[in-house]
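Box 4.2: Ligand-aware structure prediction
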Amino acid sequence: MRPTGRLHLGHYTGALENWIEQQNLLQPDGSRAYETCFLIADYHNLTTSLDTGSIYENTIDMLVDWLAAGVDPEKSPVFRQSQVKEHAELFLIFAMLITTARLERNPTLKEQVRDLNMDSLVYGHLGYPVLQAADILLYKGNVVPVGEDQIPHVEITREIARKFNSQYQHPVIGDVFPEPAPKITKFSRLVGLDGKAKMSKSLGNTILLSDTPEETWAKMRNAVTDTQKVRRNDPGRPEVCLVYSYHQKFSKPEELSSIEQGCRSGALGCVDCKKMCAANISGELAPMLEKRRYYEARPDLVRQILHDGETKARRIAQATMTEVRQAMHLGEPAA
Ligand code: AMP
């Protein structure tokens, strides 16, 4: 995740919640199903903004949200791309294994260029998925939890892994890299409070994970609902209503049918419906707010967690790069 500061509900439903589920998933014998690594992609920020003035504060703000939501640094190292040099090194090698034509065909890039009205592209932005391939493969990731928009990037990662393995074989282990599979998140596109676009900080249509119940309600009051339901008793259409889509995510399954019926019959007004929705969202965020306060009061602990994560990540990354160099006959031959 790029360090863009405090996170919103879209980050939670589209990524974080899934990460934490994978982190905590156990096998029948009680062992962990996955080893998880969570990357703060600070170099990736440069593809769309050169302003790094607030990057440290944004990193810490995001990390506190991760910890508050349940990322457990004992289980999952958390680390910044810029602090593990091997990301840049593997990126350089991978950049030789893919053509510019292939990168220009990347549909996610085309969408970004269109959405951000970019009239030109920096070289590093074209190579974004190549850096991402290095981010994944340095840790020999088998499974990458992503939103739908990232599937093309995991495909590029798979192609690069295949290309490397077919070109270079390690004398002992053979293939250096696995071919990672994407694991698609269930809620990979949470619409923002304006009802128009994906929830996103730049559009100002967010509820933050750190919003208090009062702040959440103040934002929810102005959320767009079914435009055909004007007065309280007008029948509504939950299937087109943004607030109902939030209920589907944040309210209990047993509440949903009465909300749906109340909306359709007109018995449930939008204000009451929004109050319930805001309360349920705040209910889910309450334990995170408490944990956030804990970490906010302990900045040294947060810094230590990051440094420890970076030490662990470096160890893994260096071991992979040793194998890469041996497979490529760069430096000393393998013993
Ligand atoms: P970004 O801040 O764009 O790097 O996003 C970090 C992660 O959060 C990515 O996996 C995104 O797919 C996910 N994400 C961001 N906004 C949303 C949203 N509105 N709905 C679902 N997922 C989102």
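In the box above, the bound molecule is adenosine monophosphate. Strands lie at 38-40, 78-80, 143-146, 181-184.
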